[in-house]
Design brief:
The complex is a heterodimer.
Chain A: H1 4-13, H2 16-28, H3 33-53, H4 59-82, E1 90-95, H5 103-114, E2 118-121, H6 128-138, E3 142-146, H7 154-166, E4 171-175, H8 181-187, E5 191-192, H9 196-207
Parallel strand pairs in A: 1-2, 1-3, 3-4, 4-5
Helix pairs in contact in A: 1-2, 1-3, 1-4, 2-4, 3-4, 4-5, 5-9, 6-7
Chain B: H1 5-14, H2 28-37, H3 50-57, E1 90-94, E2 98-104, E3 107-114, E4 117-124, H4 127-131, E5 138-141, H5 148-158, E6 160-164, H6 167-176, E7 184-187, H7 192-200, H8 203-212, H9 214-236, E8 242-247, H10 256-276, E9 280-284, H11 293-297, E10 303-307, H12 317-324, E11 329-335, H13 346-360, E12 366-371, H14 380-393
The chains are: A alpha/beta, B alpha/beta.
Chain lengths: ~210, ~400
């Protein structure tokens, strides 16, 4: 069985080499890639997420851990790709049309990847149609939208309405400085995340 | 005794007792956006100056964040965190640097050639930004892309010459007059490390670089010290009473240990030097500050401007006041969403504002403002209503 404790220690150190080595070692010992991911990497990263939410560690520690996790995923992906079943949930994220701010959105992306989601980052200034098209193409379950400006937050409403009209079964989650829980409720978004740390738990709760 | 708006704000900033709660709404972005869109309230003639509208609102002038981009040349060095401001107290000169500028559509590529190498950056300013009233370009490609770029930036900053030039500032200070304090713009960053974070790298890359190239980062911080020292000197001798150093703190981005290690000591040093010359330090604190409030209280800053409460952040004004322990003047309090009809109904706005005034009471060390700015789609009448509320409930000590 994948040694979660060792994965956790390697992720805390941000050591890409150690994570790759541990991943390969687990595969060599006969573990399936799915099990290495779900019993090793993801639970270890979840522990880091919990420490982050508890303010025991901060963004840099999460980012180096997420980067190290990516190195482990790099070992697993070619094997997982041959498998017929998809093991990860896809999330499309982007900053809405007219808005160029990307710090919050990037942090959310990193946190989601760290939690084992596959993130399709559409970048900034993303029109509603592009969110929808990407969700369709990638089979995403969630569209995550970010805005920093009060002038652009209404693009979230437009996107939510268009997503609903398409009846794709895709859930929408919003966040960003001017966005409040009340606003999310008003526009019919399925979830609201006040910060990057809570985005993961919000999305997990929606997917349950 | 009559106290004018400027004196009232300065007294609040110094923690002295005054007669009335100052109210200074920031309307520059709202003004820019609505002027550009042709949607200023119909009672205002086209071309009306921003101060004419501020006079009509009836509060003090909010003169804190400068107009960074009157002409494209003003913020051409924006990716280096350098600006040429009409109301500035200094002019930066890049010595030993050959600057190459290429424009393509809305994007401008600026390349700095030095004897130790070159760095290039891209800045963007487009129509969407104009419509939103934004007065500063966006860095779409940062200067640091490879480890070798640290050395080039170090060279640029070691060789910057700061020319104190107080004429533009004096003119502006006179224009503002008794209607508010004219905040002199020092730097958006409080010290070299925040400068690197804000201007030279995108945020996520910055954190990884802290692990990957700490030595280069430390060296660049050292190389930037002479620049900041020149800035200090220019401001110490300036006619400015209030000076802005440091902006956009946020508990996630400038997380507490980072703030404690890299921002707090720098702010304390800055405050000490400015206070020795009788000047006040203002920081633009428009982010989520919950985890930083204790550090802000100990920073030496006199004014935490753009303090934004719930529902846009985690803290109420009562909580912010408690954590700042009366050591810092709060400038702000009205979250920008309170001015939007699609975020708060009239009844919700009235209820929210009355509660806010209750939390502000008794009202010392407080300047009421919009955090961080009046949004372009704000309901203008709500600004007028706040003026009425400030008159009705703002007599100090407030007893609402």
């Amino acid at each position: 069985m994948a040694d979660q404790e060792k994965f956790y220690e390697a992720l805390c150190e941000g050591s890409m080499d150690k994570v790759k080595e541990l991943t390969q070692k687990a595969l060599n010992a006969g573990e399936t890639p799915d099990k290495v991911l779900k019993s090793g990497l993801i639970p270890a990263m979840d522990r880091i997420g919990v420490r982050f939410r508890n303010n025991e560690i901060f963004i840099p520690e999460v980012l180096i851990a997420a980067r190290a996790m990516h190195a482990g995923l790099g070992v697993l992906k070619p094997i997982l790709a041959k498998s017929t079943t998809s093991t990860t949930t896809k999330v499309v994220i982007g900053t809405v049309k007219g808005d160029l701010h990307d710090i919050g959105k990037n942090l959310v992306g990193m946190m989601l990847e760290g939690a084992g989601f596959e993130v399709v980052d559409l970048g900034i200034d993303v029109p509603p149609e592009k969110f929808i098209q990407s969700a369709k193409e990638n089979g995403a379950k969630i569209i995550g939208m970010s805005a920093l400006l009060t002038t652009t937050m209404m693009q979230m409403k437009t996107t939510v309405e268009k997503v609903k009209a398409e009846a794709l079964g895709v859930k929408t989650v919003i966040g960003g400085a001017p966005v409040t829980e009340e606003f999310a409720r008003q526009i019919g978004a399925d979830g609201y995340a006040p910060d990057a740390a809570s985005a993961v738990s919000t999305i997990k709760a929606i997917l349950k | 005794m009559f106290i004018n708006q400027k004196e009232r704000m300065l007294k609040a900033a110094r923690g002295e007792k005054t007669d009335q709660l100052p109210w200074a709404p920031r309307i520059d972005l709202w003004y820019n956006a609505n002027s550009y869109r042709g949607t200023l309230p119909s009672k205002y003639r086209p071309g009306i100056a921003i101060d004419g509208i501020a006079d009509d609102i009836g509060g003090a002038y909010h003169k804190v964040v400068p107009e960074f981009r009157r002409t494209p040349e003003d913020d051409l060095n924006r990716a280096l965190g350098l600006f040429h401001l009409r109301e500035g107290v200094y002019r930066p000169e890049l010595l030993g640097v050959d600057r190459e500028v290429k424009e393509e559509g809305d994007t401008t590529t600026v390349t700095y050639h030095t004897p130790v190498g070159s760095v290039s950056c891209k800045i963007l300013y487009n129509d969407e930004m104009r419509k939103a009233g934004i007065s500063i370009s966006w860095v779409s490609e940062h200067a640091i892309k490879e480890p070798k770029d640290y050395k080039v930036l170090g060279y640029i900053f070691k060789n910057i010459k700061i020319h104190p030039d107080y004429e533009g500032y004096r003119r502006w200070q006179q224009e503002v007059g008794e209607k508010g304090f004219a905040t002199a713009f020092g730097n958006n960053a409080a010290g070299p490390m925040q400068h690197i974070m804000r201007d030279f790298l995108d945020a996520t890359k910055f954190y990884l670089e802290m692990y990957d190239h700490p030595k280069e980062m430390r060296q660049l911080c050292e190389d930037m010290e002479p620049y900041f020292e020149q800035l200090f000197k220019a401001f110490e001798d300036s006619p400015a009473e209030v000076i802005l150093f440091g902006a956009n703190y946020d508990e996630m981005i400038t997380y507490p240990p980072f703030f404690k290690d890299h921002i707090l000591p720098w702010l304390q040093r800055c405050a000490e030097r400015l206070h020795a010359k009788g000047k006040l330090l203002l920081c633009h604190c428009d982010g989520e500050n919950e985890g930083l409030l204790d550090l802000i209280a100990d920073s030496g800053m006199d004014i935490a401007e753009a303090i934004c409460p719930k529902p846009m952040t985690k803290c109420t004004i009562a909580e912010v006041k408690k954590r700042l322990r009366g050591k810092v003047t709060i400038f702000g309090g009205v979250p920008s969403v309170a001015l939007l009809e699609n975020s708060m109904s009239e009844a919700e706005f009235e209820k929210f504002m009355k509660n806010l005034f209750r939390e502000i009471a008794p009202g010392y060390r407080f300047i009421l403002g919009v955090s961080d700015t009046t949004p372009p789609d704000a309901k203008f009448e709500r600004l007028l209503r706040i003026t009425e509320m400030a008159k009705e409930w703002g007599k100090l000590p407030m007893t609402i």
